[in-house]
Amino acid sequence: MSRMRKRGVSFLALVAAVVLPSCARDAPPSAGAPVSVARTTEDAGSPVPTALPAPSPPRVRLLPVPPQQDAAFDLPKPADVDPKLASAAAELFALGMADPRGLPYRAIEVPTGSVWSGVGERVQTRGFLLPKTGDARHCVLWSGVVHPCVELTGNAQPTVDDDVKELAKRDAQERAKYKQENPKGTFHRSGSIGEGYAVAAETPTWTKVVMLVRLGKFPLADTVRRAIDPIPTSAQEDFFLLAATEWLWARYDRGVTSHMAGDDGLAYESLAGLMEAWAKADATCDARGVRRQSEPNATGPASHFSFLAGTDVLLADNERRARAGVAPFDLTKTLALPPKERIAALIARLDEVNERQWGQPGGVSLGRSPIVEALVKEGEAAVEPLIDVIEKDTRLTRSVHFWRDFSRHRSVLGVHEAAYSAVAQILHVSVFTPAATGDDLSARGADGRRAVALAIRAHVAKWKGVSLEERWYRVLADDKAPPAEWAEAAMLATTTTNVTVLASSMVFTTTITSSVGPAAGFKGEVLRGHAAPSVTVLLEKRARAVTDGRQRCALSHALVTWDPGASEAAGEAVFAELVREELAGKGGRECLSTLTLDRVTAHHAHALLDYADWLERAKPESSGFGNLEAFHPMALHPKDPDVARAATRIFAKGSPWLPAVGDKKADINLVSMVKLPLSIDPLRQRVLEYLDDKTVIGTTQVREGGGLSMSFNSGASTGTSVPQDDPRVPAAGTKQTLRMADYVAWEVSTNQDALKSSPRFGVYWSEAARNQALRTMKQTIERLP
Question: What is the value of pTM for the model shown?
Answer without folding.
Answer: 0.74
